[in-house]
Amino acid sequence: MTENEHSVGTGLSNNKLLMWVFLGSECLLFGGLISTYLIYRSRFADGPAPGDIFDIPFTSVSSFVLLMSSLTMVLALSALQRGDYRNNRLWLLTTALLGALFIGGQVYEFTTFLREGLGYTTSPFSSAFFTLTGFHGVHVSIGIVMLMSLYVSSMRGNLRRESAETVEIVGLYWHFVDVVWIFIFTVIYLVPSPTS
Amino acid sequence: MTNTDNEKIESPSDAEEEHEHPSDRKYIQIAIILGVITALEVATYFFEDMPGEILIPLLMVMMVIKFFYVAAWFMHLRFDSQVFTKFFVGGLVLATVVYVIALTMFEFWNKG
To answer: What is residue A60's DSSP assignment?
Structure first.
């Protein structure tokens, strides 16, 4: 390097930095979707209103499940950093299962809504609701695929203590999905919604 | 540039502060706090007479506390480089601005 050249290195892990930049951009995606929902939540036309159809106790259980999956995710990382591969696999699998349980709950909720007459095109409210929660569900599903990839990698002996950063990066994505749900659960479900 | 400077630049671990992550016990404590706050949030649903002027700010405060705990402890922002925090908070601030602009615009259009 010559005298006139500048250092362009941040000294930070590029992969981790990339994930944080990605998560920053994801905030914009979900910010847009949540805004759209809030604008349209009172426009339910002749279809069911949000206040009539949401099952808060059921969604509360789903939210708790997703919240606890964040705990199992950090425990998986912690185990790998200690070189405890058995517990790392156990917590990775538990996190994926809790995620799958959450998705199962969402599928059940969507099916119930459809049966009660709330389809994707029923009203602006229903479109905004299904788009927002559907996008979140897709993110959880992608997270489950990443967790299972890590699990398989660990079973093959390829996930070692030295590659803990990979688990940390997947963990960042997983926690972000949890953080988004913290917003959705409060703003969409718990803040009193219009009724018909 | 001296040899020492080159070494500083090319060694990522120097700038990425070596940080100790919390213990498993601490993680479990955080999860318990999150669980309790979630239970309190859900409890507000059963207080149907609570006025919106109290309920909504209360829910927002609990939501922000939960967000803070997950981001700071589980996502390690508390221990990692501040650059990561800036990227994340930058995204959040932009998202909030988008929401405020969209809401303001729709409010004007509705009145228009």
So the answer is: H
